[in-house]
């Protein structure tokens, strides 16, 4: 009996301590408007908590200057050591140069270059292509320069988008360096496969229904909030890497929360929030689709 009592007391103290840590952490996040999902996606949150716990009571956190200078410089040095270690593997295993075009937060068109080797990837460089025609010769010159910087003898593969111009660039690189081979990102082929699957009559009808339901829900803040009551604050919309992946991921979300959405459709709030003529017509189309799924 005594050991079990001891265990229950320890469990009680552990629960109380977790609540204290939760309240203190939440206060810091809320007061400084830090996004909550950093806790779930950031790799260093739990290690920070563990280190503070090991240091014990009374430990003082670093001031802003220390974070922005002392510890930032140390982290830069750590990353330099890390990249040097990876670069040492290039002659041993060979590496792949990955080229990806995208837009910056300020809508500037940029091309990123990454180096992949031995299951690790590091950033190499980016090029701002604002007002520059993205001709085959221009992109080839950029990639050729990266190859020279990495070392021709270390590169075995070049991976790019599946665009026609980049295919030509890949061919030119393989022509110039016979030991190279070019391949497109697998995500582009998967996206093309999903596009073909999504164009099949029965599947297209299902996807169209899913888009109608999700669009109808997210066009009203009241309905979104009602939905989250039943899905325990979880969203149906989860953006994927590509357009067609997003459609299938959204469909998967509808299936996952099927029972929750059915319960939502039978509430008085569902009817009340969608009683306007403009929404009632679509509501009457969505409700049977949800309940019959």
From TrEMBL:
Tell me which domain of life the UniProt entry assigns to the organism this sequence originates from: Eukaryota
What InterPro entries does the record tag this protein with? DUF659, RNaseH-like_sf
Specify the DUF659 domain's residue ranges.
66-213
Q: Please name the Pfam families in this protein's record.
A: DUF659
The protein, known as: DUF659 domain-containing protein
**Species, as recorded:** Vitis vinifera (Grape)
């Amino acid at each position: 009996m005594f050991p079990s009592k001891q265990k229950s007391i320890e469990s009680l103290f552990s629960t109380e301590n977790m609540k204290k840590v939760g309240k203190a952490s939440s206060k810091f996040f809320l007061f400084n408007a830090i996004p909550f999902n950093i806790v779930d996606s950031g790799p260093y949150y739990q290690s920070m908590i563990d280190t503070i716990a090991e240091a014990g009571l009374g430990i003082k956190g670093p001031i802003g200057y220390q974070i922005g200078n002392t510890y930032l410089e140390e982290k830069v040095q750590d990353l330099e050591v890390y990249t040097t270690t990876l670069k040492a593997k290039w002659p041993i295993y060979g590496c792949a140069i990955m080229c990806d075009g995208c837009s910056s937060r300020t809508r500037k068109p940029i091309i990123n270059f990454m180096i992949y080797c031995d299951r690790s990837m590091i950033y190499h460089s980016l090029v701002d292509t604002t007002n520059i025609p993205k001709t085959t010769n221009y992109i080839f010159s950029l990639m050729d320069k990266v190859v020279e910087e990495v070392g021709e003898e270390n590169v075995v593969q070049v991976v790019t988008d599946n665009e026609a111009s980049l295919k030509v660039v890949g061919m030119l690189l393989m022509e110039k360096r016979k030991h190279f081979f070019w391949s497109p990102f697998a995500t582009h082929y998967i996206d093309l496969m999903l596009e073909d699957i999504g164009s099949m009559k029965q599947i297209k009808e299902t996807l169209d229904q899913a888009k109608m339901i999700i669009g109808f829900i997210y066009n009203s803040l009241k309905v979104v909030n009602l939905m989250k009551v039943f899905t325990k604050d979880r969203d149906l919309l989860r953006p994927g890497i590509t357009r067609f992946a997003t459609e299938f991921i959204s469909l998967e979300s509808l299936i996952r929360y099927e029972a929750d959405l059915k319960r939502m459709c039978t509430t008085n709030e569902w009817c009340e929030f969608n009683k306007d003529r403009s929404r009632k017509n679509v509501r009457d189309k969505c409700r049977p689709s949800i309940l019959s799924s």
